[in-house]
Write a structure and sequence with these properties.
Layout (H helix, E strand, L loop, with lengths): L5 E6 L8 H10 L3 E6 L9 H8 L18 H7 L2 E7 L1 H8 L6 H8 L4 E5 L3 H5 L1 H12 L3 E2 L3 E4 L5 E5 L3 H15 L6 E6 L4 E4 L2 E3 L6 H12 L3 E6 L11 E5 L3 H11 L5 E4 L6 E3 L19 E3 L3 H8 L5 E8 L3 H11 L4 E6 L11 E2 L2 E4 L4 E3 L3 E2 H16 L2
The structure holds cytidine-5'-triphosphate.
Length: about 400
């Protein structure tokens, strides 16, 4: 799976850095193109000359080349890489990454990397077990960083315990497994509705809602990363898509979203209804700006919008998988299970507005999956990227049953 992959190897200043020449060599043998960025201290543990010889690329340490002023662009490194592997990752660098500190090229590259990031921590056992380190690792996990757990054994300190960097073979195997998993949606088409809908009142006003589209975009990114062809039918949001195998279809109203989703339903293997669709639209859109009346209240007549999920549920083919969302404030499980049944979904992802830091506009979410067969699976509060992974893992298990 690693053949042809661009791997950016970040080396921080720990004794395990001496293993990096072997690690880079293994990656090169697998067919990877490896570029190396080091912290200034890492140079004391493994020489840039060794790393440059193994990888056949100059080693980057500083923001610019002092000889000629040439700029080492962390942005282009981050865009070039298919994966950024930081090995060894010291407690110090992990702490900086968790807190967005960017005082060297390795760290600025982390902040601008759009690819998956892996860290292989290496440190003394007490440093590894310390609450601060574990807290930082939890933050990084929630940010979507893949942690390659250290091993137990003899440490440079002479002590014995957990903290030794995973062996190069194990690190390469972790990367390989990641890229293999990435392709488990290859050949599948996934249609996702996301964001709010806007229902026009007049040329300058609309009825809308607070949906940011973040959950739908996280799902689209996850599916695209795993090899699917993604059709993202999205209401008005400010988010951007950067992945090539996401085709974005921008819509505004529920009716437009309905028409786009129905048109795609014949080719979709998986349909994910993540949009916060307005249930009603105004009966008569004014073609001019409505003026304030001098006295009295104003009444807008609303008529129902089509229920996109229910319509797709009616059209569902054998082997097609449908996933819905429910945001509830009370009687959560009962309401969500009712929607799952009514709309002919295979499972529904429930979030409750009673959970803190979950739902609209947040970067995190806490969900429970309710399966049509009655299974209930609760998940912890996590980043929307990790929630997306849980949902797709669940969907694949059902699809492959
Ligand atoms: N949905 C849809 N089209 C609609 C309304 C909802 O596709 N017009 C989808 C949502 O994307 C979601 C699921 O149906 O996957 C449940 O949405 P929700 O708004 O909670 O459902 P409603 O049936 O509108 O129920 P409620 O009375 O709670 O608004």
């Amino acid at each position: 799976m690693l053949k042809g992959k661009n791997i950016l190897l970040g080396i921080t200043g720990g004794i395990a850095a001496y293993k990096c020449a072997g690690l880079a060599r293994l990656l090169v043998k697998q067919g990877c193109d490896v570029k190396v960025v080091m912290t200034p201290l890492a140079r004391q543990f493994v020489t840039p000359l060794s790393m440059a010889t193994v990888t056949r690329h100059p080693i980057l340490v500083d923001f610019f080349n002092p000889e000629n002023g040439e700029w080492n662009s962390h942005v282009s490194l981050g865009l070039w890489a298919d994966a950024y592997l930081i090995a060894p990752a010291t407690a110090n660098s992990l702490g900086k990454m968790a807190n967005g500190i960017a005082d060297n090229l390795l760290l600025t590259s982390y902040l601008s990397a759009r690819c998956p990031v892996f860290v292989a921590p290496a440190m003394d056992l007490d440093m590894y077990a310390h609450k601060a380190t574990q807290r930082n690792l939890d933050i990084l996990r929630a940010d979507g960083v893949n942690i390659i757990e250290p091993e137990s054994g003899f440490l440079a300190s002479g002590l014995e315990g957990k903290g030794r960097m995973a062996e190069p073979e194990a690190i390469v195997a972790a990367l390989d497994a990641y890229f293999a998993e990435q392709q488990d949606l290859a050949g599948k088409t996934v249609m996702i509705t996301a964001g709010p809908t806007y229902e026009k009142i007049d040329p300058v006003r609309f009825i809308g809602n607070y949906s940011s589209g973040k959950m739908g975009f996280a799902l689209a990114e996850e599916c695209a990363r795993r090899g699917a062809s993604v059709k993202l039918v999205v209401g008005p949001v400010s988010l951007k898509t950067s992945t090539p195998n996401i085709e974005r279809i921008d819509v505004e109203s529920a009716q437009e979203m309905h028409d786009a989703a129905v048109a795609l339903s014949d080719i979709a293997d998986i349909e994910i209804l993540c949009a916060a669709v307005a249930d009603y639209r105004v009966a008569q859109q004014a073609d001019h700006k409505i003026k304030r009346e001098k006295t009295g209240a104003m009444t807008l007549e609303l008529v129902p919008n089509p229920d996109i999920a229910a319509e797709l549920g009616r059209r569902k083919r054998d082997g097609q998988l449908m996933i819905g969302f429910a945001l509830e404030t009370n009687d959560e499980q009962q309401n969500a299970a009712g929607k799952c049944e009514r709309k002919n979904l295979d499972f529904i992802v429930l979030n409750s507005l009673r959970d803190q830091n979950a739902g609209f506009r947040y970067d995190t979410n806490k969900v429970t999956i309710l399966d049509r067969n009655g299974d209930v699976t609760p998940y912890d509060l996590k980043s929307k990227a990790l929630v997306a992974k849980d949902i797709i893992d669940y969907a694949l298990k059902k699809l492959n049953k």
